[in-house]
Amino acid sequence: MRHFIISYKKRPLGESGESCKSDYDLSKACVDCGTGAKLIGNLRVKGFSNIKKDFFETLDGDYIISTRLYNLIKEYFNDFNLLQVIDSKNNPLDFYHFANNVTLPRFKKDSTGFVIDRQCQTCKRNGYFTHTEIGDMEKNIPTVIHPYIFKYDKTDFEKYKSELILNTWECFGLSNKIATGKNVIRYARPLTIVSEKIKDKFDREKLNDIEYELIEIE
Ligand SMILES: [Zn+2]
């Protein structure tokens, strides 16, 4: 069974999470930055009323799946259980939060495709970013986005291989546990990894807005 990091390639839609006052459990999160905060219950969202897509990412970096596609996938996998998203008045909407609480161990040291910037020195878990080399149009140098090449130890990965959705331990972007000045409360998100079983269903539904990058198990 192969597993893939997913990235949403189109413009993100709607808001979610911290900015919509979703509840987070900080008991296992970093005491300084809040990375590792765990969503409690349903993801609260804003600005979803005109969205017709089956799968998308919000501006806050959460993945969302339509009720239609969720039900379709659920027909194949009984243990595929997601939570419905809710609006500011706690009304359930016609979408589910595409997420799981299972987190992989750290990737191997020779993994590539990322840079680390302004990382919290307490947890060293956030501050990961895609490795992008900005080009120069005048000098004809194209922008290069390096692919993620994430490697995991075969023995470590064994117990995760049947999971449909996984999180990386490493969290992308910055975290702010406390709002100060211009900084709003924000918890860096892990990357989402899906099993080939999910990719197959997405491919069959012709979801063309997702890029998949195979993780290496060795
Ligand atoms: Zn931290």
Structure description:
This protein has 218 residues and is mainly β. It has one domain (3-217). It is 10% helix and 31% strand. It contains 3 helices and 18 strands. The chain has helices spanning 67-74, 154-157, 196-204, and strands spanning 3-8, 15-16, 23-25, 38-40, 45-46, 55-57, 63-66, 83-86, 92-97, 114-116, 128-130, 132-133, 144-145, 151-152, 165-172, 189-195, 210-214, 216-217. The strands form 7 sheets. The chain has a 4-stranded antiparallel β-sheet with strand order 15-16-1-17. Strands 6-7-9-8 form a 4-stranded antiparallel β-sheet. It has a two-stranded antiparallel sheet with strand order 2-5. The chain is globular, with a radius of gyration of 18 Å. 30% of the residues are buried. The site of zinc ion has 7 residues, from loops.
Helices and strands in order:
Layout: E1 3-8, E2 15-16, E3 23-25, E4 38-40, E5 45-46, E6 55-57, E7 63-66, H1 67-74, E8 83-86, E9 92-97, E10 114-116, E11 128-130, E12 132-133, E13 144-145, E14 151-152, H2 154-157, E15 165-172, E16 189-195, H3 196-204, E17 210-214, E18 216-217
Parallel strand pairs: 14-18
Antiparallel strand pairs: 1-16, 1-17, 2-5, 3-4, 6-7, 7-9, 8-9, 10-11, 12-13, 15-16
Bound molecules: zinc ion (ZN).
Zinc ion is lined by residues 30, 32-33, 35, 120, 122-123.
Number of H/I helices: 3
Ligand catalogue: zinc ion
- The overall average pLDDT, rounded, is 96
Q: Which percent range fits the helix content? A: under 10%
- The computed structural class is mainly beta
Number of DSSP-assigned strands = 18
Main sheet: strands, sense, barrel: 4 strands, antiparallel
Inertia-based shape: globular
Radius of gyration: 18 Å
Strand order of the largest sheet: 15-16-1-17
Assembly type of the shown chains?
A: single chain
**Overall domain count:** 1
